[in-house]
């Protein structure tokens, strides 16, 4: 029986447009950035880089673009948090026997933008639904590392066989499954987290 549920944030609750930042970059800029862009993002997501250093490195990578322009580009993937998902989550959090957790690969700029765009009242409503609210840049671990799932399981004394993980990225779900966690690879646009009860 599932009694623990670990949720991703982006494209599970918060709608995303993951390609948005790249649409505003030229092909030449993307080619020049190459793997260095991935490395900078990964370091930022685990808190190795702070926001000023991240923006500085991005400016070096995309020479000629201002800090303000790059920050707007970076946040352009973040869309809305539908009220029906928030209401669903609030109802679920009040039910027994479920213990709810959030586990998100994210960064300081994105979280600050989400708070500003949806408002602190709605952000607080969302956060208060979870027993623990794990953000990669705060805990120094990110998906799909198995270590991040072990961290959540061990810190909260969760039995993986009684735990479900929901994410829109298959690689993340597969990592959780290797530890015995039940996984739901949510198909964005075809499925919605509000259908969870049919999966338990």
TrEMBL record:
UniProt-recorded Gene Ontology molecular function terms:
hydrolase activity
Q: Which NCBIfam families match?
A: HAD-SF-IA-v1, HAD-SF-IA-v3
| Alphabetized SUPFAM superfamilies for the sequence | HAD-like
UniProt keywords (A-Z) are: Hydrolase
Q: In its UniProt entry, what is this protein called?
A: Putative hydrolase of the HAD superfamily
Q: Which InterPro entries match?
A: HAD-like_sf, HAD-SF_hydro_IA, HAD_sf, PGP-like_dom2
Query: Which Pfam family is an annotated match for this chain, by its short name?
Result: Hydrolase
Residues in the signal sequence: none
Q: What is the lineage of its organism?
A: Bacteria, Pseudomonadati, Bacteroidota, Flavobacteriia, Flavobacteriales
Keyword Hydrolase on this protein? yes
Protein's UniProt keywords contain Hydrolase: yes
Superkingdom, according to UniProt?
Bacteria
């Amino acid at each position: 029986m599932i009694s623990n549920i670990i949720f991703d944030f982006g494209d599970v609750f918060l709608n995303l447009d993951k390609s948005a930042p790249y649409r505003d970059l030229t092909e030449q800029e993307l080619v020049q950035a190459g793997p260095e862009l991935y490395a900078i993002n990964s370091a930022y997501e685990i808190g190795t880089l702070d926001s000023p250093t991240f923006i500085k490195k991005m400016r070096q990578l995309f020479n000629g673009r201002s800090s303000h322009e790059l920050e707007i580009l970076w946040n352009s993937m973040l869309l809305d948090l539908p009220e029906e998902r928030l209401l669903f989550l609030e109802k679920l959090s009040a039910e027994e026997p479920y213990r709810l957790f959030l586990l998100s690969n994210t960064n300081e700029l994105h979280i600050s933008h989400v708070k500003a765009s949806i408002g602190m009242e709605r952000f607080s409503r969302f956060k208060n639904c979870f027993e623990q609210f794990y953000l990669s840049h705060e805990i120094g671990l990110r998906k799909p590392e198995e270590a991040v799932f072990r961290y959540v399981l061990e810190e909260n004394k969760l039995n993986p066989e009684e735990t479900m993980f929901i994410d829109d990225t298959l690689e993340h779900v597969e990592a959780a499954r290797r530890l015995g966690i039940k996984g739901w690879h949510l198909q964005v646009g075809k499925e919605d987290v509000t259908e969870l009860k049919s999966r338990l």
